[in-house]
C-alpha cells in the first residue's frame, strides 16, 4: 500500500471511529508502529488530526484564524449565541469569552438587560457599546490577534478579583477523553482562570468542535455544567458527554 493510501485509510478510520491507535493500525497495515507514528506526525503537521499518546483524535477546524472561523457554521453560531443570551438574568455578573459565537451572544442580548459583562475580547466589548443598561468590564493584557482576545499574566491577575455567576466559554475542541481544548497555551490559561472564577461554565459548541481536540487542554468535560449545541446535532455526537452529567441544550 502506498503511503498516501495508508494516510487516507487512517483519516477514514478516524472519521468513522473518532480515534485511532498506532498499534492496531500497524497490525492492520502490516507496517511498524514507527511508520504509523511518522504518518500521524505528518498528518498532524497538515492539521488533519491531533496526536495523543498512542494514537490520534480528530483535529478541530476551529483553530483557523478569526476571519476563517467567521465563515464556519454562521447560522448555527447565531442560534447558539441567541440561546446563550437568553440564559443571562438581570443583575448577574457574566464572563463572555472571545470568538465568533461569543460575538453572536453579544448581538442577541436584550436591549434593556441590566447586568455586568466581563470580557477579554475587544470585539465583544464593541458589540456591547450600544447597550446602555449593561456594565461592561474589559480585561486587559497582551492582544492575541488570532482570536482577538487578551492573554497573559495581566489578564489572569485581573480575573482573580472577580467572581461571576456564569462563564460562556468558547473552545476549539470538546472531547470526552481530551476534554475542553483550544489551540493556544496562553489562551488556555486564561480560560482556566475564567472557569475557576465562575459559579457555572457554559460551553458554546458548534458542530465542528464536537468530538474534536486541540493541543492545549483547558479542563475536563465535567468543568462544564452546560454545553449548547446546534439543534441538528446527531444524538451520537453528544452521547459521549452524557456520563459526565453535563446538560445539553439544543439551540
Automatic annotation (TrEMBL):
It comes from the Bacteria. It holds the Pfam family HTH_DeoR. Keywords: DNA-binding, Repressor, Transcription, Transcription regulation. Residues 3-58 form the HTH deoR-type domain. The keyword Transcription regulation applies. The keyword Transcription applies. Gene3D superfamilies: 3.40.50.1360, Winged helix-like DNA-binding domain superfamily/Winged helix DNA-binding domain. InterPro entries: Carb_Metab_HTH_regulators, DeoR-like_C, DeoR_HTH, NagB/RpiA_transferase-like, Tscrpt_reg_HTH_DeoR_CS, WH-like_DNA-bd_sf, WH_DNA-bd_sf. This is DeoR/GlpR transcriptional regulator.
Amino acid at each position: 500500500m502506498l503511503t498516501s493510501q495508508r494516510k487516507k485509510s487512517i483519516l477514514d478510520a478516524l472519521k468513522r471511529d473518532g480515534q485511532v491507535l498506532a498499534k492496531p493500525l500497524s497490525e492492520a497495515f502490516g507496517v511498524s508502529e514507527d511508520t504509523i507514528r511518522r504518518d500521524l506526525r505528518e498528518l498532524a503537521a497538515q492539521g488533519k488530526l491531533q496526536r495523543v499518546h498512542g494514537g490520534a483524535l480528530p483535529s478541530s477546524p476551529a483553530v483557523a484564524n478569526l476571519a476563517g472561523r467567521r465563515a464556519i457554521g454562521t447560522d448555527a453560531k447565531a442560534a447558539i449565541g441567541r440561546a446563550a443570551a437568553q440564559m443571562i438574568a438581570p443583575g448577574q455578573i457574566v464572563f463572555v469569552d472571545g470568538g465568533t459565537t461569543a460575538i453572536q451572544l453579544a448581538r442577541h442580548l436584550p436591549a434593556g438587560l441590566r447586568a455586568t459583562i466581563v470580557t477579554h475580547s475587544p470585539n465583544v466589548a464593541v458589540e456591547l457599546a450600544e447597550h446602555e443598561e449593561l456594565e461592561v468590564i474589559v480585561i486587559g493584557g497582551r492582544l492575541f490577534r488570532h482570536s482577538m482576545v487578551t492573554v497573559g499574566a495581566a489578564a489572569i491577575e485581573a480575573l482573580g478579583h472577580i467572581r461571576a455567576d456564569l462563564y460562556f466559554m468558547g473552545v476549539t475542541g470538546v472531547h470526552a477523553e481530551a476534554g475542553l481544548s483550544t489551540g493556544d497555551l496562553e489562551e488556555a490559561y486564561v480560560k482556566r482562570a475564567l472557569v475557576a472564577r465562575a459559579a457555572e461554565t457554559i460551553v458554546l459548541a458548534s458542530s465542528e468542535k464536537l468530538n474534536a481536540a486541540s493541543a492545549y487542554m483547558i479542563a475536563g468535560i465535567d468543568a462544564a455544567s452546560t454545553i449548547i449545541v446546534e439543534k441538528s446535532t446527531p444524538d451520537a455526537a453528544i452521547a459521549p458527554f452524557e456520563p459526565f452529567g453535563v446538560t445539553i441544550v439544543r439551540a
